[in-house]
Every structure is written in C-alpha cells, then in structure tokens.
Amino acid sequence: MEYTAKDSINRERMPRHVAIIMDGNGRWAKQHGLVRMLGHRQGVETVHNITEAAAELGIKYLTLYAFSTENWNRPQQEVDALMELLVDTIAKETDTLMKNNVRLLTIGDLSRLPKKAEEKFRGCMAQTAGNTGLKLVIALSYSARWEIIRAVKQMSNEVKEGKLRIEDINEETVSEHLTTAGIPDPDLLIRTSGELRISNFLLWQSAYSELYFTPCLWPDFTVEEFYKALLDYQSRERRFGKTSEQLLSDQKKY
Ligand code: IPE
Ligand code: IPE
Ligand code: MG
Q1: pLDDT tens per residue across span 168-200
Q2: What interhelical angle do 223-234 and 36-57 show, nearest 10?
Q3: How far apart are CA 231 and CA 41, in angstroms?
Q4: 89: domain range?
Q5: Of 53, 142, 242, 253, which residue is most buried, by most CB within 10 angstroms?
C-alpha cells in the first residue's frame, strides 16, 4: 500500500482546534487560465475534503476563514459571486454535515451578509445544532480587530450598567466577550498559498497557536497535505513560556 502521512499521526496528540486561513483561490485560477470564481469553486471542494478528514480524525474544532471584513473591499462582482457561492455550498453540504455528525457554527458579523446568505447559515446552524462530532466554525465577515472592538464596547457597557467590575477583568473575561466564547484557542493555525501573515484572523486566540505556512494554494491543499501539517504540529514542543527541562519534569509527575 502507498505511504500516507495519516499512518504516522499520533491519535493521542491531536490538536483540539485547527484554524485555517484558506488562501490562494485566485492564484490557482490564474495558473489554470480560469476566472477567479472558478478558483473559489474549486476551493469549496477542499473545504469539503478537509472537513471530512478532520471529523474522521476526531478533531473537535475546525475554524475556516472564509471571508474577512476587508474582503468587502473586493470588486463588487466578486463579492456578489462569493456570497452566492456560500448560499449554494450550504444548500449542497448540509446533508454531508448531518451524515458526519458535524455542527456548524459561525463567527463574524453575519448581519452584513445578504439576507439570503444569513438565513441559510442560521438555518444550517439550527439544523446541525444537535450534532455532537466536529464543530465546524466558519469565519464570515470576520476580522479580529472588529471582534476586539465589539468586545471592548460590550465590556464597557457592562461596567457602565454595574454588571462588571473593572478590577475583575481578566483574560477569561476578554475571551468570553469574543465571538469565539466557549471555543478553545486554536492549537494549530495553518495558512496556505505562501503568504506569511495573519490578515486580521484570531489575533487574541492565536497567542500561543503553532503556526504552519505552506506554499500550497488552497484548491491544491489535499487531505495528504493536511496530514503533513498535523504531523509537523506533533513534532513540536509547546513550551508556553517554560523551559524544556520544566516540561520534562512536569511530564514525569503524571
Ligand atoms: C482566498 O483566496 C479566498 C478568499 C479570501 C475569499 P483568494 O481569493 O484570496 O486568492 P488569491 O490570494 O487572490 O490567490
Ligand atoms: C485572508 O485572505 C482572508 C481569507 C482567507 C478569508 P486574503 O487573501 O484576503 O488576505 P490578504 O489580503 O492577502 O492579506
Ligand atoms: Mg488571498
């Protein structure tokens, strides 16, 4: 049988939460002499495959950056087509989500989406609400700075109304006011397409995420590439500010 990186993955050391900046659809289309939208269409195939693979591996949370606040500044024609693609994709993929016991969640400003897209997402979230497997979190009209400003405003209001004391504000308080409240921070953050930046994604939550950058364009990001990223993650030592020696002696204690 052919070698697959999957066989080397240690199921005991899986990241609980993987977040992905899905980038490179436009360049993939260009490489193939196609219009940008066909790159996005191909990208949906990757979303389907990676979601299935993550569910199968028992990963608990998969967050996908699908549309940023800044993406509203793209040509109107591309924005409209992307919104239509989102609607089509949800309609087509809901059965697969149900079959794989996947629960859909979203983060971002859904109210900025066209009504139809917002309704589709809300409908799918309601339909999959009882599923107990992978939680698939789609970031839509999301940006970390938007989210942080929103949290600061909410906390300020609560202080004004006497519901929150300034001296009680800690890391947990801030986390609970972000759109990812209740979702653990990503252990692994992947970006495809060779760009070495975060582009306003999960700035607070990725404070201690392991970063993985691959030149692979999103439509070319196969399940095998995903396994490689997981293997790379498993080869790292997460120290959270401590020393290697401390980690070793901590391990011995358990
Ligand atoms: C990522 O692909 C998808 C979205 C941001 C919606 P891009 O559309 O950014 O593709 P490139 O970066 O132009 O290749
Ligand atoms: C980041 O990709 C946003 C998403 C993947 C949705 P972009 O292609 O928009 O990022 P920049 O503009 O190159 O940083
Ligand atoms: Mg891009």
Answers
A1: 999 999 999 999 999 999 999 999 999 999 999
A2: 50
A3: 28
A4: 13-143+186-241
A5: 142
Q: Ligand 3 centroid to 23 CA: how many Å? A: 5
What is the count of structural domains for the chain?
Answer: 1
Q: What percent of the chain has pLDDT over 90?
A: 97
* pLDDT number for residue 1: 63
Cα(147) to centroid(ligand 3), Å: 21
Question: What is the rounded distance in angstroms from the CA atom of residue 119 to the CA atom of residue 129?
Answer: 15
* Cα-based angle 93, 94, 97 (whole degrees, multiple of 5): 90
Handedness of CA 250, 12, 46, 87 (dihedral sign): negative
Residues in the chain: 254
Residue 41 is assigned to a structural domain of this protein:
yes
| CATH code (residue 191) | 3.40.1180.10
159 located within any domain: no
pLDDT, residue 249, reads 93
Residue pair 49/62 in contact by the 8 Å Cβ criterion: no
Question: Residue with the nearest Cα to atom 1 of ligand 1?
Answer: 23
pLDDT > 70 fraction of the chain, expressed in percent and rounded: 99
Pocket test for ligand 1, best of 20, 25, 79 (most atoms within 8 A of CB): 25
Reply yes or no on whether the pLDDT at 226 is more than 70: yes
Q: Please indicate, yes or no, if residue 176 is contained in any of the structural domains.
A: no
233 lines ligand 2 (CB under 6 A): no
